[in-house]
Write a structure and sequence with these properties.
heterodimer, A: alpha/beta, Rossmann fold, CBS domain Like, six-stranded mixed β-sheet, four-stranded antiparallel β-sheet, 15 helices, 13 strands, B: mainly alpha, MetI-like fold, three-stranded antiparallel β-sheet, 3 strands, flat, binds adenosine-5'-diphosphate, binds magnesium ion
């Protein structure tokens, strides 16, 4: 668990982060959103002490982050930035091995870990281990950046607009990968983004920042239904808040008992997608069916619409 | 005439009518030199003006014919052959022919056992060497050899020249006569030359690298430091020696230890200090430029991974800046090898001693004894470091 307590950062007269308090649950993803210049990166960088706070403190699992030298703290925290920041003079394998080397792992363990991560990120070790970063595509570079951050099995992963430089299709894939990885390793993730869709898709909680202050940090649905500040509802978008809400609920969660002869949808489909499917096919209800064919229930248009309101 | 027609004419006439423009100039210059300038100059002793002798006068008939034939082939290649490999081979053959012809002329014109007469290469020899050298350089450029090939080629050329010199091929030429008289001193001055050039480079690297890093880290310091170094660069060498004489002389007078270490107003000390000061600008400026070029994201990531500041500097920043820094080292090394020559004027020694002594005695051969190795050294240093920079730069393109 990460506890941010009354954290502030001032540069001269300007306060860039202003008294932010925030808890990040273990094994969760928290997305920090806000307009550009609102202090998101500064807040994130104070967690691994790339920026030293002016006041306040950060506890990770109850331990003050200032209890050890900053560089030792950072070796236990993964860090991914926009534009990946891979070392251009080192191979993919050497890049991934950076933190394990700093920690003094033996070569056998490093080699095994590098191979494991390359496979997890669908990069064939035979082809990519010895490649230099500039020989990879943008999406591959970004994956190596995440693999490098995860190499020493950190409990916490900080990401600053990690997918900002990717085109939409590769970005969606990278987001799915991140969700998989996060589940697989149980990493606690704090992610900065200015893309609301990304925040809603990835964040189990979303923190909204403006002018250095944290306006609200809550589950996405709560942000939509009970915004703490007019700015929050403006940022999350008034026009399509109903659709946003629908996209947060899956068919499996919302399915009601009953039969339907409408189109079949998987339980993992979002209500937004189910609704779209119903509009397209002209049916009034959809069948929710598992991959193995078990019927989980049905979803009527009315039931779906009811979920799009607070 | 339309473009297509023009191209058609070019293609059909390519083999005979299109003369290589550089080749034409070089062949014209070489031929004119052979016709109007002496190939060697015969002097009855080292300072009298000599008698000009042409190639035909000095070589036995078969030798003159062989040399002329090779030169004619070089000329034909320079004019019409497009294959760069053939051009290079014939350029090198031409250089060898001219060098061996000069050596043979030396042997032929020197009375047996004589140590007084001097056979000096004449105007035609030098013009031919320059033309053939340019021809070879042009052919090499067209071949675009990789860095390793270039260095190997340099090493092979130097080795070949070394073997010929050791074998005594050129012993009857005037420069080698001067060498024979000065052999021991030559070795000493050459060592001194290298010591001064590399010593001041090492000192400049030792101080300049940290200074460059400092300027990079503290941008407010940068303009002051770079301006100061720029101003130093504009002071002429002789003036700088003069400026340094007073304080170093005073230091030697005040501190006996300094005097005993050789730190005096004249001699090697002011030369090293001056060269060191000149060397700082390229090293510092290139270190700053190299570090500035390093991707900010990579540096940020390095800190974020938990590298210490020292590790970020040595394992990421300096490694990535190295090609640019080495470009600075190349500038300094070539500059120093040349400028050490002037150090001889204030008693600093080095190969410049022969140059200035030769000028004083109007003994041009002695000047060449100093100048040829200096040029060779500077050229070799430039070529080797260029190759190194290219290799390093390619790794991380
Ligand atoms: N080192 C610094 N010195 C002065 N101002 C800074 C510094 N770093 C960031 N800032 C300012 O702090 C504000 C917030 O920056 P940042 O945290 O990067 O915002 P965000 O990531 O939300 O776009 C910006 O106005 C920026 O100009
Ligand atoms: Mg930012």
């Amino acid at each position: 668990m990460i506890a941010v307590e009354n954290l502030s950062k001032r540069y001269g007269e300007t306060t860039v982060v202003d008294g932010v308090s925030l808890t990040v649950e273990r094994h969760s993803i928290t997305a920090i959103v806000g307009t550009s210049g609102s202090g998101k990166s500064t807040l994130l960088r104070m967690i691994n002490r790339l920026v030293e706070p002016t006041s306040g403190r950060v506890l990770i699992d109850g331990r003050d982050t200032r209890a050890e030298p900053a560089y030792l703290l950072r070796r236990r925290i993964g860090y991914v930035i926009q534009g990946h920041g891979l070392f251009p003079h080192r191979t993919v394998a050497e890049n991934i091995a950076t933190v394990p080397r700093l920690l003094g792992w033996n070569e056998r363990r490093i080699g095994a870990r590098v191979r494991e991560l390359l496979e997890v990120f669908a990069l064939d070790p035979a082809t990519y281990a010895g490649a230099l970063p500039h020989q990879l595509s943008g999406g591959q570079q970004q994956r190596v950046g995440v693999a490098r951050a995860l190499a020493a099995e950190p409990l916490v992963l900080l990401m600053d607009e990690p997918f900002g430089a990717l085109d939409p299709i590769i970005r969606a894939k990278a987001q799915d990968d991140l969700l998989d990885i996060q589940r697989r390793f149980g990493t606690t993730v704090v992610l900065v983004t200015h893309d609301m869709d990304e925040a809603f898709r990835l964040g189990s909680k979303v923190a909204v920042m403006s002018g250095g202050r944290l306006l609200q940090c809550d589950r996405p649905a709560v942000l939509l239904t009970r915004p703490a500040d007019p700015f929050v509802s403006r940022l999350t978008g008034l026009a399509d808040r109903a659709m946003r809400l629908l996209s947060l609920v899956t068919a499996g969660e919302a399915a009601l008992p009953g039969a339907s002869d409408g189109p079949a949808v998987a339980p993992t489909t979002s209500l937004r997608e189910v609704l779209s499917e119903l509009v397209w096919s002209g049916a009034d209800s959809a069948r929710v069916i598992d991959v193995d064919g078990t019927v989980r229930g049905r979803l009527t248009v009315a039931a779906i619409l009811a979920r799009g309101r607070p | 005439m339309s473009g297509a027609q023009l191209r058609a004419v070019r293609v059909s006439g390519a083999s005979l009518t299109r003369v290589d423009p550089l080749g034409a100039v070089l062949v014209a210059a070489g031929a004119a030199a052979l016709l109007f300038l002496p190939f060697v100059v015969f002097k009855s002793n080292r300072i009298v003006p000599g008698d000009p002798r042409s190639l035909i006068q000095v070589l036995p008939a078969w030798g003159a014919f062989g040399c002329a034939a090779l030169l004619a082939m070089s000329a034909l290649a320079a004019l019409w052959v497009t294959d760069a490999r053939v051009r290079l081979m014939l350029a090198l053959a031409g250089i060898a022919a001219v060098a061996l012809a000069a050596a043979a002329a030396g042997d032929a014109l020197t009375p047996p056992g004589d140590r007084i007469v001097r056979i000096a290469p004449g105007g035609a020899f030098w013009v031919l060497m320059v033309c053939l050298g340019l021809f070879a350089t042009d052919a090499t450029t067209r071949l675009k050899p990789g860095p390793a090939v270039r260095v190997l080629f340099l090493a092979a050329s130097l080795a070949l020249a070394g073997v010929a010199l050791a074998h005594g091929t050129f012993d009857h030429l005037s420069v080698m006569r001067e060498y024979a008289v000065n052999a021991e001193r030559f070795a000493r001055e050459a060592r001194q030359h290298l010591k001064l050039a590399f010593g001041s480079l090492a000192a400049a690297a030792l101080i300049g690298l940290p200074l460059g890093v400092l300027c990079h880290r503290a941008p407010r310091l940068r303009p002051a430091v770079l301006t100061t170094l720029n101003v130093i660069q504009t002071i002429p060498a002789i003036a700088l020696f003069g400026i340094l004489m007073a304080p170093l002389g005073a230091l030697a007078a005040a501190v006996p230890l300094a005097d005993r270490l050789g730190i005096r107003g004249i001699g090697a000390a002011p030369a090293v200090v001056a060269l060191f000061l000149y060397s700082l600008l390229p090293i510092v400026a290139n270190t700053v430029a190299g570090l500035k070029r390093v991707s900010r994201a990579a540096v940020e990531a390095a800190h974020g991974m938990g590298m210490t500041s020292w590790q970020v500097l040595t394992k990421v920043e300096l490694v990535l800046a190295l090609p640019v820094i080495l470009t600075g080292v190349r500038v300094v090394l070539v500059q120093n090898i040349g400028m050490v020559t002037v150090a001889a004027l204030i008693g600093g020694g080095g190969l410049g001693a022969f140059v200035f002594q030769g000028i004083g005695q109007t003994a041009i051969d002695l000047v060449l004894l100093g100048a040829i190795p200096i040029v060779t050294l500077a050229f070799s240093a430039a070529l080797t470091l260029d190759a190194l920079v290219e290799v390093l730069d390619r790794v991380k393109a």
